[in-house]
Amino acid sequence: MKIKITGVGSYIPDMKVSNSDFAKHMFLNEDGSPFGYPNEVVIEKFKGITGIEKRRYASPDQCASDLAFLASLKAIENARIDPETIDYIIFAHNFGDVKYGSKQSDIIPSLATRVKHKLQIKNPKCVAYDILFGCPGWIEGVLQANAFIKSGMAKRCLVIGSETLSRVVDPHDRDSMIYSDGAGATIIEASDDESGMLSYESATFAYDEAGYLFFGKSYNPDLKDDTCYIKMYGRKIYEFALSQVPTGMKSCLDKSGLGIDDVKKILIHQANEKMDEAIIHRFYKLYGKSVPKDIMPMSIHELGNSSVATVPTLLDLLIRGKIEDQELHKGDVLIFASVGAGMNVNAFVYRY
Fold this sequence. Notes:
This protein has 352 residues and is α/β, with parallel strands linked by helices. The protein has eight helices and 13 strands. It has helices at residues 39-50, 64-79, 111-118, 137-151, 234-256, 273-285, 300-303, 310-319; strands spanning 2-11, 15-18, 54-57, 88-92, 127-131, 156-164, 181-191, 196-204, 213-217, 228-232, 263-268, 333-340, 344-351.
């Protein structure tokens, strides 16, 4: 028995924020000193590295659980199921519900519980809980759903990734341009046919790497409050990802019994275009192969990095034919992979 994605949905906020909208920001170095060049140069360099041209922000009346609810509705409709038959709701996020203009995270009750309430599911045996696993959270949720279903604890799970990173960024940190908001949701069920998950890998590297992503003070020394924002050591994360993600993907693919030439698409966390390209290059190099054309669909150019939402949103867009020059066919072999705070790395091989 394997597990299969039987329904998928995403919610992409309406508010578009382009790179030019950051032209008047006061970007500062970590020590609070100003850059020695204008914002136009900062933005151009940023685009060249990350590939991001635009991103989406949630409207002021929306929180992460609201986006998740809307994505979940689409996934349930796509799967054509009764939500009362869902055994687990697994909600991956990082910062909870952060209201617009607020400095606090709200996670009581859990965001999964909030989604269950919004879906008006009456069944008390539908268990709802959150997971914190950095950007790889949605993939980890799928792996947990796999364990529940294979153990007999569940027959059907709703796995969600949703985040409003625009609410936790330091406006004086140029890395703030990376982050965005969004949600993706999937229905996971048992599969007796050839499709479904074939293998998986997951790991946490915390000996030296635990603090590569963290909560820290604003780069603006004139701000006297204690508000903290998402921060990262970009170079360390880049080097870590290039070292650990390709080998994790290879281990996962080798466990599936398939070869590198069987892979048709790689759906990787939309973190940074140059980093993702380098990861895929190294992955294929491990097999002595060149990277095939169109193997890696991308959404980061228009949607930015919405953390746990990037991979399920990418899947939804791909299935619906919304990514230019990209399509899926029955029987295609996919690799899903992600890296993020922890530092966590995970992947699974899937036959569509």
